[in-house]
Amino acid sequence: MADEKKLHLVAPVSGLAMAITDVSDPVFSQKMMGDGFGIEPSDGQIAAPVDGRIMMIADTKHAIGIKANDGAELLIHLGIDTVELKGAPFEIDTAMDAKVKAGDVIGSMDLDAIKKAGKKTTVIVAITNTKDVVDHLDVTPGEVKRGEEVAVMTPKAAVAAQATAATSNKKESKYAATARQIIADVGGAQNVNSLIHCITRLRFYLKDEQKPDDDTVRNIPGVIDVARANGQYQVVIGQAVTDVYDEVIKQLGPGYSNAEGTAEAIKETQAEVKDTSFLGTLKRWAQALIGTITGSMIPVIGLLAASGMLKGVLNIMTTWFHLSTTDPTYVIISAMGDAAFYFLPVIVGFTAAQKLGSDPVIVGIIGAFLIYPSIAKIATAGKVSGTLLGMGINASFFGLPVHIANYTYSIFPMIFAAWMASKLEPWIKSWMPLVLRMIFTPLVEIFLVGMTVVLIVGPLITVLSSAITSGIQALLSLTPMISDAIIAGLYQVLVIFGLHWAVIPVITAQLSSAHPESVLNGIVSISMIAQGAGALAVWVKTKHNPALKGLSLSAFISACCGITEPAMYGVNLKYGRVFIFASIGAAIGGVVNGLLGVSMYGFTGSFIGFPSFAAPGWAHNPGNFAGFWIASIVTLVAAFLLVYFFGYKDADANAAKAAPKKKRLGKTVE
């Protein structure tokens, strides 16, 4: 009897079956869509893997949804990234709501056409409601024919009992219950003006948008997420949206339905996916890049904030309590504060790989390779045998002269490494025999990605840095108010891409003279304060997101200690306009800084570094200290007010929660 409750899944296509973790697509292999299996097909006939009902057919024909009789919801995905083929290689031989038996032919795919288009033909079966119905899934890998058993799903005990009790009841109550809870939690029928839906979401027009509690709605079984946009309260359901929509309308009454609006919403979401114009593509790339940077950094923001505050404490101890930099106490605390930044390539490599779907351990090792002591030594103290495009040739590789850059503290090269690895891994799996993957996949990946970063990405960043150094030196020759405004407004953009190291040689040269004085370092200090002020404005204005409120306050404190990464990556870049208006505030502060002629006489900036602005006796600049405070406070107030009134609203935090969690550069995975 126990076996009768199990769901036996048959192969939808003939070919080589594999566990879903071996599928060459990170969205599926990491079980983001649920547990399941994949098959490399040997023919193009597609069959139903279970008895059930067709609940979804994609407009592009590349995906079919089936609800099994026991409640499991299966997605049959034909090929990888084949949505871009707009249905050309596929034929569907079934219809919505059609009943099917396991082994029934429901469509076909042209394998040659898919391969010619440069796409993978892998057929993937994912149980999209895995967390609700699956106790475990046993997959039998190897050659299989269409209609033969390939997997057995053991349901959760409660689900099995419900399935047994419901065998005589054709109407499922699951969607009705979800609909009832959604109606209640958006404020009841009396709070609903009308309702439409798109391909994944219920879109409510509410009388009072403040009534729903987002976390309550988000936790309703069957609800994926919520969002507030375009005057709508959007409840993300997924492929079962039409089932839930029908139940909501059944309970509300037909007067709430807006069929015309639903049709327009579906067209809008499809148009968004299909926007291939230059501006549309550029917008997607920009959004994906910023989303990837912030998503890669957010897991370590708290660590960086803590490290920044620890370094601030160390600065206080050395400046005011005369702690020597050679004292073991200093060395120990300094190591604590610097560790997160020194090993940032390893940490970011790991988190970026998680974000982009590559192997986190492998990319983390690539980060470790880049900061390995002997490599770092070549970059910082290697013998320079010549120059090329402004780069010092400090090493050779198989006899070829190369430039080795310094990757300590770097972020962008590791994000590139994670992206490249996410593209390489599926390619390696496509030809690497399964028995060799454990050893040779890391070998090939580390070598190819590591060498690409060292031989191409690093030198490219060095060339850009040299150009930036020349540009900054040219700017400093302009009127101080103009140069200070431009540099302060744009400096944190350099930080995002790790190009701010181009500024260090200029600052070092200024502070290494007989009378150390740096105008540039004072401008950098202004940019730090501005980003902290942006985070402070978010803290003041956020009302309904305790996590963001705590993060933004700690990010502000860290920025006051001279560490802006928590503010930028944890808050400001995440909410786009915050970073932009904070940078405008920095430019305003830069004007004042230039007008007052503020200089800096040490390395430590921001508010924690105020002793660095006290002019020594030889400088004859008694107003510099006051100028620092005036420029810094103007910056703080300007950036704070700009962000508070124009750069951020509390609803932005809710919209960010509903953003896709997995992204690839240039494409959003939904």
Q: What is the total domain count?
A: 4
* Backbone shape: globular
Low-pLDDT parts are 165-172, 657-670
Mean pLDDT across all amino acids:
82
Percent range for helical residues?
Answer: 40-55%
Strand order of the largest sheet: 9-5-6-7-11-3-2-13
Radius of gyration over all CA atoms, rounded: 29 Å
Distance between the termini: 39 Å
Largest sheet entry:
8 strands, antiparallel
Structural class: alpha+beta
Query: How many strands appear in the DSSP assignment?
Result: 24
Number of helices: 23
Query: What would you call the quaternary organization?
Result: single chain
The proportion of residues in beta strands is 15-25%
Structure description:
With 670 residues, the protein is an alpha+beta fold. It folds into four domains: 7-164, Glucose Permease (Domain IIA) (Distorted Sandwich); 175-256, 2-Layer Sandwich (Gyrase A, domain 2), CATH 3.30.1360; 284-302 and 339-477, no CATH class; 480-657, no CATH class. The strands form seven sheets. The chain has an eight-stranded antiparallel sheet. A four-stranded antiparallel sheet has the order 15-16-18-17. The protein has a three-stranded antiparallel sheet with strand order 1-14-12. The longest helix has 43 residues, at 278-320. It is globular. The relative contact order is 0.08. It is a multi-pass membrane protein. Residues 25-129 form the PTS EIIA type-1 domain. It is found in: Cell membrane. Residues 176-258 form the PTS EIIB type-1 domain.
Overview in brief:
It is found in: Cell membrane. With 670 residues, the chain is an alpha+beta fold.
